[in-house]
């Protein structure tokens, strides 16, 4: 599974045998995706050295790696900053997410077994509990919903048996999720209803209908994020 939002917040530190650099990479990446490091923010190596407990040399390597992932922007001799966000990029990420996820969903519906179905149901149950709380105005952090949203969508495509596709999708999903975390806004009953319907269509192996719904669901999420007015 990808290193997406709060679901794996401190997982990096717990992974046996990981280097200091790998732990720092995962923490910095997570802080960018979760919006703790804001778009355009200057990434000052002296400060980061204390926060992430890594050397300046290691941090430079990490930031160059994140620049390749387009989560960080390299500014030549001026150092690094967190990558900006734009409405145009959000739309492009949404289109790419839809392309990858709908393909993986078809494959999973074709190949998934009973354990896969159970995983989809379990992931949706956890998500639905959080959604009911948010709809009922309970003090549930939106970031917890984002984590469970990832868990559900990942569960639906987890039987695709295409590791390269899964890794690419996870990377795009994280960049898409970054916009959700910056907006910190839940779409409400429409999103919850779509998740429940998607669960049913997946379990019933209705691939065409599931893919069509997933496309609408992603587009609805894009328009909701843009409606917050946070992105130009």
List the SSEs and their pairings.
Elements: H1 11-14, H2 20-33, H3 45-52, H4 56-68, E1 72-74, E2 80-82, H5 87-111, H6 114-135, H7 142-157, H8 163-183, H9 189-203, H10 207-227
Antiparallel strand pairs: 1-2
Helix pairs in contact: 2-4, 5-8, 5-10, 6-7, 6-9, 7-8, 9-10
3D structure, described in words:
With 232 residues, the protein is mainly α. It folds into 2 domains: 78 residues, Arc Repressor Mutant, subunit A; 141 residues, Four Helix Bundle (Hemerythrin (Met), subunit A). Helix content is 69%, strand content 3%. It has 10 helices and 2 strands. Strands 1-2 form a two-stranded antiparallel ribbon. Strand 1 and strand 2 form a beta hairpin. It starts with 10 loop residues before the first helix and ends in a 5-residue tail after the last helix. The N terminus is likely disordered. Keywords: DNA-binding, Transcription, Transcription regulation.
């Amino acid at each position: 599974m990808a290193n997406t939002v709060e679901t794996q917040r401190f997982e990096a530190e717990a992974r046996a045998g990981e280097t200091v650099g790998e732990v720092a990479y995962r923490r910095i990446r997570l802080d960018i995706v979760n919006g703790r490091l804001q778009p355009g923010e200057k990434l000052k190596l002296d400060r980061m050295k204390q926060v992430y407990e890594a050397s300046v040399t290691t941090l430079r390597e990490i930031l160059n790696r994140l620049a390749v992932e387009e989560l960080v922007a390299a500014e030549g001799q001026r150092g690094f900053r967190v990558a900006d966000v734009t409405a145009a990029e959000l739309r492009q990420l949404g289109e790419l997410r839809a392309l990858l996820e709908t393909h993986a969903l078809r494959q999973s519906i074709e190949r998934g077994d009973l354990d896969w179905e159970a995983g989809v149901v379990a992931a949706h149950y956890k998500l639905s509990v959080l959604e009911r709380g948010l709809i009922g105005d309970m003090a549930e952090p939106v970031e917890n919903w984002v984590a469970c949203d990832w868990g559900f969508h990942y569960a639906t495509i987890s039987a695709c048996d295409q590791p390269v596709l899964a890794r690419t999708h996870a990377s795009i999903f994280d960049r898409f999720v970054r916009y959700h975390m910056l907006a910190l806004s839940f779409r409400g009953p429409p999103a919850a209803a779509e998740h429940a319907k998607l669960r049913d269509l997946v379990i019933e192996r209705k691939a065409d209908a599931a893919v069509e719904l997933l496309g609408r669901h992603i587009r609805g999420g894009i328009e909701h994020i843009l409606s917050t007015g946070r992105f130009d």
